[in-house]
Amino acid sequence: MTASPPRILAIRFSSIGDILLTTPLLRAVRARYPEAHLAFLTKEPFAPLLADNPRLNDLMTLGAGESLTHLADRIRARQYTHVLDLHGSLRTRGLRLLVRARWSGYRNHRLAREILIRGKRNVYPRDIPVPERYFDAVRKLDVRPDGEPPEFYLDDKARAEARAWLGSGLGDAAPLVAVAPGAAHLTKRWPVEYWQDLVGRITARDFNVVVVGGPDDRAVAGEVARAGGTRAVNAAGSFGLQGTGAIIASSRLLVSGDTGVMHMATGVNTPVIALFGPTVRAFGFFPYSREAVVLERDLDCRPCTAWGTERCPLGHHRCLRDIAATEVEDVVMRLVA
Predict the structure, then answer these.
(1) Given this structure, which CATH class describes domain 7-141?
(2) Domain boundaries of the chain, sorted by first residue
(3) pTM of the complete model beyond 0.85
(4) 310-321: per-residue pLDDT in tens?
């Protein structure tokens, strides 16, 4: 008797980068089990990251204010055979108690991370990127990574809206470079004046620039865009996740800090120049793509945090201040040549 195809649910509630970094696993599961029913559960605001992903049969969302018991009822009704906990949160631990299935998760190396931050000793067992760490959850399903980048599928409407918006704002067909100056915490942000210097240099070379980000980035993005005059436009806060992805997909490359936007670019096959300050490769969040260049400084004080803070603990912020706009400009020119 032939066994029924597995019914697999992957869970990652947030955030942009973490969710996109699960997509290599989704691709590998689909390749290994083409007949499987593969679903994903995330928070509603992040659903556009996966809404058009052809690897999935179903996309479940956690609504605002939805109780854990109600969510568990919905999961049980779908009768999944395997549930992949790609978050490791209190919520997913609660779901493990409420939903009977073959649950599996991955090691997030919290202790190794704290030892590296506080003691500056790297005790991570291996230098494994987060997209490949997620594969711990599918070890018993005999699924392995293919080494290819994340996937962020865009719908035709988002692409058309991005083209129309860029055409009305910039007009000419000069090569387009995207920049993302925002970050949730100050220590992950390259200084505004450095971004302005870079944009001025890029536009002086007859490139157009689009500044991307979320609604919280609108003000700083406006300051950066003004440095490019008529050759730069501010898209921050004007688009949702799909639209921002489409803007990035229309660009020759993206310059970004350690943010979710960086992973959007790898997901739409746009080359990335990533500026890393307080965080380091061992944490696993470097851009997962061969078309990426990471600029960083080897300082004794790195890493000082895993997610960024509101001030540099030593007050100098050299990890990012020591990366000059001229250095980034040189890499931009090399990648778009």
Answers:
(1) alpha beta
(2) 7-141, 156-336
(3) yes
(4) 999 999 999 999
